[in-house]
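Ticket #4471: structure export looks truncated?
Reporter: QA, pipeline team
Priority: medium

Steps to reproduce: submit the single chain below to the structure queue and open the exported record.
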Amino acid sequence: MSTKHVSVHEDGSPERLAIDTIRTLAMDAVQKANSGHPGTPMALAPIAYTLWRDFLRYDPEKPDWPNRDRFVLSVGHASMLLYAVLHLADVREIDAEGKPTGKPAVSLDDIKAFRQLGSKTPGHPEYRMTTGVETTTGPLGQGCGNSVGMAIAERALAARYNREGFTLFDHDVYALCGDGDMMEGVSGEAASIAGHLKLANLCWIYDSNQISIEGSTELAFTEDVRLRFEGYGWKVLRVEDANDTEAFAEAIRTFKATDDRPTFIIVHSVIGWGSPRAGSEKAHGEALGEENVRSTKRGYGWPEDAHFLVPDGVSDAFGGAISKRGRALREDWEKLFVRYRDAYPAEAEELEAMRRGRVLDGWQEMLPSFPADEKGLATRDSGGKVLNAISPCIPALLGGAADLSPSTKTDIKEAAAFEAGHYDGRNMHFGVREHAMGSIANGMALSYLRSYTGTFLVFADYMRPPIRLAAIMELPVIFVFTHDSIGVGEDGPTHQPIEHLATLRAIPGLDTIRPGDANEVAIAWKVAITHTHEPTALILSRQAVPTLDRSRYAAAEGLEKGGYVLADPDEGDPETILIATGSELPLAAAAHERLASEGVRSRLVSLPSWYLFEKQDQAYRDSVLPPAIRARVAVEQGGAIGWDRYVGQDGATITMSTFGASAPLAKLQEKFGFTVDNIVKVARSVMEKNG
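Actual output as written to the record:
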């Protein structure tokens, strides 16, 4: 499109002045913090300038306008690029309730506090912390996956809510990514499904600068990325010089004219362009140093002793162009929505609830209740029944599995598949792409949907980065994990999760729930839907689990407090406490009954959610697990880590200390001690120990 290293803007032009302001703000912020990555913001300043000033549908005064274009900085280490743009565009801050605060989203003082404690300019952009940041991008590749989820959400919202004469949703999603993103497997998974779904509203801008932390990408990355993306089914464009803003603008115009596939724009840049150390890993990964900053500014024709300089008129010209375009589009949309509300009141009410992160009332009444059944059913099966019972009342609920919906029971029976040309479907087929599935679900949740995923618990390892990020961002994504224990049986140790419950429970802000029968499953789904700022991991069994007789045992609603007393002795205080989760709960119930028949007074406690239980006050927790009763036994087909919190030094656990084995379930239960006889034996042992 152009000759390399050609600058299309002369020194002193308004465009060049704005671009160099972005560059120098990045240099100064990184230098003051003595930490950060100045090179990529410097190199990509012309790209960010052109995209935001000339194309992005965005109103700085109302940065949460639903039909705005989304800009995702997947190269999160280049955060100063985004902070500089948000400052120059004069994006206005909104609070957690979506109300304007009257403050700038990113002030010059915020930029001066780059990477400092309590600032709105952390080292990597963080959703909810800084207005204008659409998603938290730290681990490379996650922003790529998020952008696919956002593009899916736009297509889903448009299919459900757009009507003739009422185009509520037609926005685009842009992701700025780099060589590191391209190396991470999650970006390949996400790109593959985006191409399959023909998401023409998605544009990735790939900064091909051939530099990573260790040095030149020649060390480890020599593939032909263009051919790879053509193979994924993307339109691939090339801009030979990041400074050639007209060539880049033409590429964006081509993207906007493309309606049958996503677009991948390869932009060649020189990291730290204009710096004496351009092309060095230092320009990428650390402050340039005072003398290099001064000499670079001289090269720009910039006052070399000026720090955090924003020349007069730069913000007005840059932000003014964005605001003029965006305000008109946003005001037209708001007028359209007023008419839409009159014409389609039910749909408008749904949309307004989704924007608030709420679910309209009525779905709770659809929660099924399951009769007592000694044979019972797998909690994955009861989970599927609950999902299908409530989904008609929750149109925002959209998700699927990583090629496992027949096993995870996560399909909505009366709904179609979400596919290219059929974006009104509610069943996502993510393919065998667990990592991308998680990051895509996060992107969907960032665009109003109540997304859920499904796979086997052992594959939570493939999803840990997006699960963790969902917790950091406080997104109410529902991660359904089935095949939760050695109950997988003959599939053997590779498919039998052991440490996974402990590692999920260790994630702050993630509600990990392992319900013990069908009625607890119904309440677990209720909790997950009710969450507005926490993701949920639902842990479900493959094997059948008896449905407890709730006329004999406490109501399953006790799950809402995380743990509750399921049964007590008929007379007298308990001598021992049996604690269990999931498929081991009916086993513990049977042991409770056996002990009662033998004259031993036991308390049976269901503890499906440690997260919720720890949120209760001390008085409630002590009422469930009285400190005076030290003879306690925890029963769970997972690792022992963490259970000492509840059984103490004087209690015992019946848990897993090894990987499993390939055998029928009954044989495995006998081998590893998950039998009524062994629970009773261990309970008597701890009672004797505690005298």
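Status: closed, not a bug. The export was complete when the record was re-opened. Leaving a note from the reviewer for reference: DSSP finds 25 helices and 22 strands in the chain.
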